């Protein structure tokens, strides 16, 4: 065991001396490893950060949550021309689901409408995201109320002119969420009474969040736009009861909807049932592909770095041929010489990898400071991967020079060195 520790110590010293004595050559050799590790870890960190942000943006929804509409959240075998002809889900179908489908904990009807401008006296906020939903959305999304309340079933069904504001909207219009309660704002040329303000959430991945949104009864929007407007993209959001088998629930939901729409057995579904878990799996698949593409591209940099390490090790073997001959003449085994150069190659590669990790670390700090609430994550696992890859590159790059050094004839080595 002591001899291996001695080899590691001597190899480390040789590696440091190589850095000191041949600064330019060593620098050029390590640049490839540094750039390669930087590229790989930067890609892994960026994809991990993206995935974490997406998961965080949907974390308020349970994975069993179902979105039913005429659009699919992921790839589908139904041709585009065909699903574009599907009818929108209707408010009446939403009521049918609530009434007829068993094991429904909560269901909400939503309409996706364009952003609008909200006014209060001389203050106004533009590009406000409108959440046109029924009252059950509060339970499905687990919205957090800072002041006031969310609208109830009666207000939702009747389409009362009440509204719940995001934190940023309330701050801009009234200075505080508490001051907003009971005030009347103007939207769609109508007056709405503020009954609630959401807790501050922070910016999302694409710059938007509930802080810049408002929620109002969907029946208000139905009166304004009508039920035949193809630009509203309605969805029925369904949350099954806890413990219900989702596959069986979805099968029952599809069967009920097919019967309700009068579809024949040989006809395909004219609606899509999108499960949030399926969307999460789709995101995992996309981020996995992004990782693979990034790793392949970064691999070319590592390949260059590997050749650089191999080159510096061949030069090191040539420069120390005399020393190798003396060591072997004094009884050093081939294994000792082999491990000595292998450890040296690994140490050089790991040094390059650590430099790459440091660059990623500072790069992530800078990127996070310029990206608002979006945080780049450099996880310990990614740091371990970077170090392991560096060591592997050193091992692979150093194996041939180490073998050539271990096989030198001591007499010829001493003579060549002289």
Automatic annotation (TrEMBL):
Entry keyword set: Cell membrane, Membrane, Transmembrane, Transmembrane helix
InterPro entries registered for this protein in UniProt: ABC3_permease_C, MacB_PCD, Macrolide_Exporter_MacB
Membrane-topology descriptor: Multi-pass membrane protein
Stretches assigned to the MacB-like periplasmic core domain: 26-255
Positions of transmembrane segments: 27-47, 292-315, 336-363, 383-405
Keyword Transmembrane: yes
Primary location: membrane
An MF annotation (GO) of this entry: transmembrane transporter activity
One cellular component term from this protein's GO annotations in UniProt: plasma membrane
Ranges where the ABC3 transporter permease C-terminal domain occurs: 296-410
Superkingdom of this protein's organism: Bacteria
Localization (cell): Cell membrane
Family statement: Belongs to the ABC-4 integral membrane protein family.
Protein name in the entry: ABC transporter permease
Organism whose genome encodes this protein: Pukyongia salina
């Amino acid at each position: 065991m002591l001899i291996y520790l001695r080899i590691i110590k001597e190899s480390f010293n040789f590696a440091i001396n190589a850095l000191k004595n041949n600064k330019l050559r060593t620098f050029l050799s390590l640049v490839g490893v540094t750039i390669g590790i930087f590229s790989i870890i930067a890609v892994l960190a960026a994809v991990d950060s993206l995935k974490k942000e997406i998961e965080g943006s949907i974390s308020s929804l349970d994975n069993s949550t179902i979105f039913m509409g005429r659009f699919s959240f992921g790839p589908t075998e139904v041709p585009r021309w065909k699903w574009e002809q599907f009818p929108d889900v209707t408010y009446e179908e939403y009521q049918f689901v609530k009434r007829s489908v068993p094991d429904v904990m909560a269901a909400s009807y939503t309409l996706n409408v364009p952003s609008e401008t909200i006014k209060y006296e001389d203050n106004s906020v533009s590009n406000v995201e409108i959440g046109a939903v029924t009252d059950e959305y509060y339970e499905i999304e687990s919205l957090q109320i800072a002041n006031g309340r969310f609208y109830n079933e009666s207000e939702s069904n009747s389409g009362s002119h009440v509204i719940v504001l995001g934190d940023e909207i309330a701050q801009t219009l009234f200075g505080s969420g508490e001051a907003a309660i009971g005030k009347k704002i103007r939207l769609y040329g109508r007056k709405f009474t503020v009954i609630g303000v959401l807790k501050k959430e922070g910016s999302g991945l694409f710059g938007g969040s509930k802080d810049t949104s408002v929620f109002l009864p969907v029946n208000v929007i139905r009166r304004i736009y009508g039920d035949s407007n193809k630009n509203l993209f309605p969805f029925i959001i369904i949350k099954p009861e806890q413990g219900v088998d989702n596959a069986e629930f979805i099968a029952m939901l599809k069967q009920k909807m097919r019967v309700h729409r009068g579809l024949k057995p040989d006809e395909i579904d004219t609606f899509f049932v999108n499960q949030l878990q399926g969307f999460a799996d789709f995101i995992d698949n996309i981020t996995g592909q992004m990782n693979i593409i990034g790793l392949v591209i970064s691999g070319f940099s590592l390949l260059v770095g590997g050749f650089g390490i191999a080159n510096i090790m061949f030069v090191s073997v040539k420069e120390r041929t005399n020393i190798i001959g003396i060591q072997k003449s004094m009884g050093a085994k081939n294994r000792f010489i082999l491990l000595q150069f292998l450890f040296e190659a690994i140490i050089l590669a790991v040094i390059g990898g650590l430099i790459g990790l440091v660059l990623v670390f500072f790069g992530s700090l800078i990127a996070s400071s310029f990206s608002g609430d979006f945080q780049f994550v450099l996880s310990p696992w990614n740091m371990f991967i970077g170090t392991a890859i560096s060591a592997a590159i050193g091992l692979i790059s150093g194996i041939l020079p180490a073998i050539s050094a271990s096989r030198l004839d001591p007499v010829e080595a001493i003579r060549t060195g002289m």
